[in-house]
Amino acid sequence: MMAWLRRLRGTILIVIFLGVFFYIFSLNFRPPERMDVFQRVVIETTAPLIKALRNVFISTEETIKEYVWLRQTRRENEQLRSRVASLEEEITHYREAYVENLRLRRLLDFKSTTQAEMIAAQVVLHDLTGWFQTVIVDKGFRDNIEPDMAVVSDEGVVGRTLDISDRYSRILLITDPGSSVDALIQRNRVRGILVGKDANGCVLKFVRSNLDVQVGDLIISSGKDGIFPKGLRLGIVQGTFKDPVDLFQKVEVKPLVRLSALEEVLLLKRGAILPENLLGN
User: Is the Cβ–Cβ distance between 171 and 223 less than 8 Å?
Assistant: First the structure.
């Protein structure tokens, strides 16, 4: 019974609405005259409602359009950001390839200039503990690598081979306290032993206090230790300290090679002889 009443009420409301609509619509076909009371009541009652519904419809339409526009804009922004990120990644790859090409070209030029038998290797691991100044390269016994082979770059001496496996080798850098290189001051041939101090530098030991050593002097290998050929660049004198009661002066040296940024190196075959004019020695 209740369901039937609800259906009847809905039907009555529809009929009333349609009647009012057609009544208002029919007014357009009547000659102009003053509205009667019923007409005025209907117009005054329904017009605000229709106007309000129209405003709601317009507002809703604008909101929907704005929402769609915002979604589209957000999607386009995401696509643009993705494209920009992709382009930046490509630029990074191109820049990295360019820098690597420059490094390899310098290394190749150095190798052709020295005319010594060398083996190129890539650094695959830097010692991360801080206890030792060493790196691992991707060449080993299978590549004819032996212990105590001099390791260089186009900038100068890197170190020497220490431990060898089939495919890899550990390089002892010249900054390690366990490293020592027989060295000369290029300017006046003053001799000493270059010993590693820490990651930032080395010390040229056993230089008498009365000998002339100046900041900026170039230190090169003397070739008398049986490992490093004569004339390889080692570093630049950064400071000298003399103690009146000490027989030797302290000479601090900064390596020419940026050891923390090593990526490729050259391993010199034992007994390699470099040209006499190499690096001005």
Answer: no
- Write out the H or E segment, with its range, that includes residue 253: strand 248-255
Number of H helices, E strands in the chain: 2, 12
Sign of the C-alpha dihedral, residues 38, 39, 44, 45? Answer: positive
Give the CA-trace dihedral at 190, 193, 194, 196, to 10 degrees.
-160
DSSP 163-193: EE-SS-EEEEETTSTT-EEEEEETTT--EEE
Please, are residues 161 and 137 in contact by the beta-carbon 8 Å criterion? no
Q: Which of 140, 137, 205 is nearest to 172 (CA)?
A: 137
CA atoms within 13 A on the CB side of 89: 6
Q: What is the pTM of this model?
A: 0.62
Q: Structure tokens of 28? A: 């357009």
Chain-centre distance for alpha carbon 166: 32
| Tens-level pLDDT at each residue, the chain (281 residues) | 545 445 555 565 565 565 555 555 555 545 555 555 555 565 666 656 666 666 666 666 677 777 777 777 777 777 777 777 766 666 666 565 545 555 556 556 555 555 567 888 889 988 756 677 899 998 999 998 999 999 988 888 999 999 999 999 999 999 999 999 999 999 899 999 999 998 889 999 999 999 999 999 999 998 888 889 888 889 999 999 988 888 999 999 999 998 888 888 889 887 655 544 444 44
